[in-house]
Amino acid sequence: MVGYNPVETCDAGRPAVPLIAPLTLVIQGFFIYHVFKTGRPYWWAFIIFSFPILGCVIYYFVEVFPTSREATSARRKTRQLVRAMNPDADLKRRVEDLEVCGSTENRAFLAQECMSRDMFDEAARLFQSCLAGPFEKDPAFRQRLAEALVAGGRYDEAADVLALLRDANPDHRANDCELLQARILEGQGRNDEVLNLYRGLIGKFAGLEPRYRYGALLKKLGNDESSHQIFEEILTHARRYKSLPESEERWIKQTRRALSPG
Prior knowledge:
- The chain folds into three domains: about 20-65, no CATH class; about 85-170, Alpha Horseshoe (Serine Threonine Protein Phosphatase 5, Tetratricopeptide repeat); about 185-260.
- It is globular.
- Helix 7 (about 105-115) runs antiparallel to helix 8, helix 8 runs antiparallel to helix 9 and helix 13 packs antiparallel against helix 14 (about 225-240).
- It contains 15 helices and no strands.
- The N and C termini lie far apart (about 90 Å).
- By secondary structure, the chain is mainly alpha-helical.
């Protein structure tokens, strides 16, 4: 037969390049690289290598997805729904935990819950109680105590606590302590010093709080044009990211309120 070529016929029914094998190797390599880069247990690499598809799927849902933005957003919405249905549940649970075991850890958890509910005097009392025994000079508890005192408007007491913290632990969370110092000075009415502190913190602080507080103070002092510019920068930052930590969303919400008429 003219034009018949058995070699060509056989080759036509066979895939030119088996893509699935190299694609699987690439995906495995990506996940194994992720294992070593992020410090996960090395046995994950063995599982991914031994079970090419199933191992990658298991690794993703066990190790990667729980720390993703989507999972964080889902957990946040779930917490918000639970709080809306039973707003006192977390507070009651923390109180019950402290009644069962009066440990420093349980006092700190209850104090933090009080902070989230604007119960600042109660939070300060609990954080003060944590500063005893082996935690008598603990810098983290001193910082939390100062934060509770500032939130409750007890600026002079907060200044004393912060001074003790900085004298004993000058390297402890320097930016956070500087922001706390600025809030104390603002509460004491020392606005010129505060503006300089907030302005300096904007460039080296990871979160939005100094920027918002700078804009809010400018607005309070009647500098509406500059404060509006600062607030717009915050909203630009918010539009750049699909999901932000809950602590950052707080400042975005307050910024929108500050920009709303009336």
